[in-house]
Every structure is written in C-alpha cells, then in structure tokens.
Amino acid sequence: MTSSDDLRDQLDSLHSISVEVAALHEISDIEQRALDHCLQLTVSEFGFIGLLVDGPRVMDVAAIDGVEPVDEAFYERFHLMAVRSSVVGVTIQEDRPNISNDVRHDPHSVGEPPGHPPVEKFLGVPLRVGDDLIGMIGVANKTDGYGSDDERLLSTFANQVAVAIDNARLYERQREMIASLQQLHERLDEAERNRLLTRERERIADGLHARIEQEVFSIGLGINSLLEADDVDPVVAERLRAIRRLAITTADEVRHLIFRLAVPGHGEGDLVSEVQSLLREVERRSELEMHLVVSGAQLPPSVEYQDVLVSVISEALNNVERHARARRVLVSIRYEDDRVDVVIQDDGVGVPGPILTTFQDSFLHFGLRSMRKRIIDLGGTLEVADGEEAGTLIRIRVPVPPPDA
Questions:
Q1: Closest CA to 395 of 340, 336, 348
Q2: Which of 83, 102, 106, 186 is the most buried (most CB within 10 A)?
C-alpha cells in the first residue's frame, strides 16, 4: 500500500505533469512526454501509447520508450497492431484496465513479436475521451509488480493524456481548416485581383481605343484640309504628308499594345484555350452569343502566330461589340498541315462598302488596317467581306513553320 505522504507526493506530481502535458499542442510531443511520465510514475522498464486507427480493430503504437529494437525496421514492421485477445488487447477489447504480473502464464498471453524484449509484468489502461475509446497506455516490467495504486494513478493520468491528445487533434484540424481557408482566401483574392485587373485592362484599352480613333481622325482631317489648300508650299506639303504617315504609324503601334492589353489571360495556353477564354469573356460582358468550331489536328504551338491571332481575333470581336449590332458570332479555327485558318462571322449590319475597298490604305480605319498588317507580317492573309446572308466575314490564313524551322 502507498503511504499518505507518498500518495500526496504522487498527486502533486500528477497535477504538475498533467499541466505540462496539457500545454503541448503537437500530438507527437504529448505522446512522448506523457510516456516518459508514465514510466516514471509507475517505475516501469518500458511502455507505449497506442491510438486506434480503424475503430477497435487496429492500433498504432504511436510512441514507445525503453525498447531497444533489434534493427531499424522493427518499429516499421510492428507499429500497427491488430487488436486481438492478448494481454495487451484485453484493454481495448474489454475497455478496462488490465494487470498481469505473470505474463508468461497469463491465459491471454500470445507471446511477443520477434526481437521484442520479454514482457514479464504488464499494466494497460484505456485512453478515453468521454465515452469514446481512442487507444491505451501500456507499461511493463515494474520490478515488484503492479497493484491497484498503479492502476488508479495511471488511469487518472491516462484521462488527462486522452484529453490532451483530443485537444491536439482539434488544434491540428483547426490549423488545417485555417490553412484551407487561407488558401481559399488567397485563391479568391487572386481571382478578384484578376477580375479587377481584367476590368482595368478593358477600361484602359477602351479609353485608348476611343481616344486614338478620335485624335488620329482629327489629325487626319486637319492635315487633309491643309493639303487641299491651293497655296500650300510643296515643301510644307511633303512635311505634312510625313507627319500624316508618322501619325498612322504611331496609331498602329499603339493599337498593337491595345491588342495585347485587351486580351484576358493572354499567352497562358494554347490557341484554342485562349480563344475559348476570350469568347467567354466577351459573352460575359455583352449580350453576344458566341460559338467556336475547331477542326483538324492542332499544330505545335508557335508563340508568334498565337500572339497575333489572339490579338486580331480580340480586335475583331471588339469591332463587332461596338459597331455590328449583332446577336451571334461564329469563330472557326481550322488546322491544316502547314497553316491555321480562322474565320470570324457575325450576323450584324455589316461594313459599309467603301470601307471594304479602302481600309487597306486608309489612315482613318487603322483598326482593320493594323489587323491586316500584322497578319501580312507573318506571311499570311486577311480578307474582310460581307457575310453570305448578313453581317461581316473576316477570313485569316497564317502559315505555321514546322517545329524544327
């Protein structure tokens, strides 16, 4: 029996130990510190803490102390234990403490796994959280055997350990939830940033588009008016023509930048994926009904032709939005052996006849002119015509060099 002074000292020690373990948050730290104290409290040679991982059928020996393994693979082979009728398993199967001071002759004894030190005396107590059994603590080989005081002391401590493990699990789940929420928040932030960026890009592109059209148009009218005067000096006229050419070139270069600015997600995928994203974006911000048809085997990607095609398609769709009064747009992409054909057809009001015949050389219609120039620079062709029944048809053909070219 334990004296009253010894009992008081044990209770004081148990209280301080429980406070220490309860302050830990990592399950592995709790298991190791708790097991160290279990061996000290019961003066045992070795012990373990096991946690159930598949209901009451499988136990994971999560912490073990005092056992010198015969090889490095010992723990890997035996840390998962099938719960069965044994000196250890009784604690789980019957959910009760179990003392055996003569393990070798115990009716539940089934021996030890190869390489395990002999177990002569054993005490096992359940780990419970409320009515739920989560595992057990086992200690072994106390010199003078285990008694009811050891059982009560270890059972009392086991209750504190079980609560600490459960709290650590809750803490771990909380951290995982916080991490998941943080990732979700970051994804939402990124999506919101992308939406804001897309809207800002569209706003800037629209503003530049409208401003360039107005200012270049005004410059062109002013220069033409000066050139039409009867008394204009030939030298001045040539300078004015040079200024007009410079204005057209500047407008073309700025339009090229607008193309790139206005294409959402530009340069992040293959041609079909980028055009799909572009059509979804146009459909989202307008009432246009968009359709995409793709045929042929997709050619190896070329950043150059893809950049140009996406930009030109984007500009064509912008023109449909602004001017065509259309309801539907069909974009067709056809892959041939050595080229890509793109057709953009809308069902709107169409392009006035004079524009169809003059846009190639007119400094006023620099949008269509710039689109055509970029395609021609790739060795391709761009044609603008009336649709068969209504609207406008833009037909593009771009040669694609072989991968090793």
A1: 340
A2: 83
d(CA 83, CA 76): 17
The CATH homologous superfamily for domain 4-176 is: GAF domain (3.30.450.40)
How much is the pLDDT for 175?
A: 79
Which band of pLDDT confidence, cut at 50, 70 and 90, is reported for residue 266? very low
Single-letter residue type at 356: L
Contact assessment for residue 59 and residue 81, using Cβ atoms and an 8 Å cutoff: yes
Calculate ∠ Cα 281-284-288, nearest 5°.
100
Q: Report d(CA 387, CA 367) in Å as an integer.
A: 19
pLDDT at 72: 66
Q: What is the largest CA-CA distance in the chain?
A: 128
SS3 (DSSP) at 32: helix
> Rounded mean pLDDT of 171-194?
74
Alpha helices in 228-270 (DSSP H): 234-262
162 vs 22, which has greater pLDDT? Answer: 162
pLDDT of residue 48: 92
Question: What pLDDT sits at residue 116?
Answer: 80
| 293 beta partners | 332
At residue 322, does pLDDT exceed 70?
A: yes
> What is 266-399's CATH number?
3.30.565.10
Distances (CA, A) of 390 to 293, 324, 346, 386: 19, 10, 8, 7
Q: Could you tell me the pLDDT band of residue 127, with boundaries at 50, 70 and 90?
A: very high
- The position carrying tokens 């004894």 is 109
Angstrom distance (rounded) from CA 157 to CA 180? 34
pLDDT average, residue stretch 105-127: 87
**Does residue 22 surpass a pLDDT of 50?**
yes
Domain definitions of the chain by residue range: 4-176, 266-399
Looking at the DSSP bridge assignments, the partners of residue 381 are 397
The pLDDT value recorded for residue 345 is 92
Cα distances from 251 to residues 212, 214, 255, 381, in angstroms, run 7, 11, 6, 21
Rounded Cα gap, residues 305 and 270, in angstroms: 11
405 vs 400: CA distance, rounded Å = 10
CA 123 to CA 143: how far, in whole Å?
Answer: 13
d(CA 377, CA 347): 29
Q: CA–CA separation, 209 vs 322, rounded Å?
A: 11
